Amino acid sequence: MGTVIDYLEKYGKYSFREMPMTEVDSLALCQLSYLKFDGMVPGLEGSRAVTLKSLECHPDCEKLFADVRYEKENRALFTAMLQGRRFRDMKLNYYVNIIEEEWETQFSALVCFPEGAPAYVAYRGTDETIVGWKEDFNMAFLSPVPGQEYSVRYLDTVAAAFAGSFYVGGHSKGGNLAVYSAMNCAPDIQERILQVYSMDGPGFRPEVLKRCGYDRIAGRVTKILPNSSLVGMIFESDMYFQVVKSRTFGLLQHDPYTWLVVSNHLVRANDLYERRKNMDSTLNEWILSLDEQQLRTFVDTLYQVVTASRAKNLIDFTAEWKKSMNGIVTALKEVDEGTREVLKEMIGSLFEIARDNRKKQAASKKEAVLRRLAPKHGEEGAE
What is residue 168's three-state secondary structure? Predict the structure, then answer.
């Protein structure tokens, strides 16, 4: 068993005419959306699309891998996609990347046009900023948030610019945006959607699904969760989901690069881990018992607790964990016992994820140094 990278290395030689779109292709395109295409892929102004292989020679190519959490994996993904004809000549267009701290919004998306396959609208998930994580919680608890509204306008705009059927997908927050935009886009555009992929994306409150007419697209939604999911299990009860295996444990399974692949599909698990299932059920029950004002208070409190450390992102949050903990302990004293227990669970999750991010960042820095020290081509043996 391998991962999405192994899949690309093995099956990248096949065109989409030889092997149609698979769920692992979808996962690869969702992860591709995390690359920083600013200044390299045209935006909504309607410029000519660029091919994936053209970016390899772009002077700013290194900036694609600015996301320190997945730098090594993103490089491997990019390289593997370039090696095979399946994705090498794929065109990219309509890239947007919006960060509005004042409105607690982080939104990014692009459209991929694989040779011989329908277009794929990919929404980026949460970045490493604290603002991004607050929006994640806002998105699940309080809908709509600005990012969701952006996603609908984006889908209506880009889908009107090209013809034919298409896919929509995203990982984490991107999965939520994929489902939300598909529920709320114009009817004629909704009819063209082949499938919607939510890769461990948070769900929606039941009233949101009802208000947005989820039933119209339910049969075309594929929601995939690792068997220790937290993010994707928020409000999962009204959405059918499939569980897959990961090579790691706990909340680190949110990283799709750890999801196991055999042949051309993800490896299915029998069910979620029992402990995680009980924890998620309790969390959802608690959330649903709150009214909108109480939910807003909870999300604001969580944000205040995390930002009490003055950290800008999750890596900083754990880099100086003693300072972070001092601020957290002080902030937790101000809330009731029920809220305090849920906040402790959420903050523990953030620490677990951020700790892993720090390890990846350190490994990436080490590799960058080694690359700089390596002799350039043609210099070996030169005097």
Answer: strand
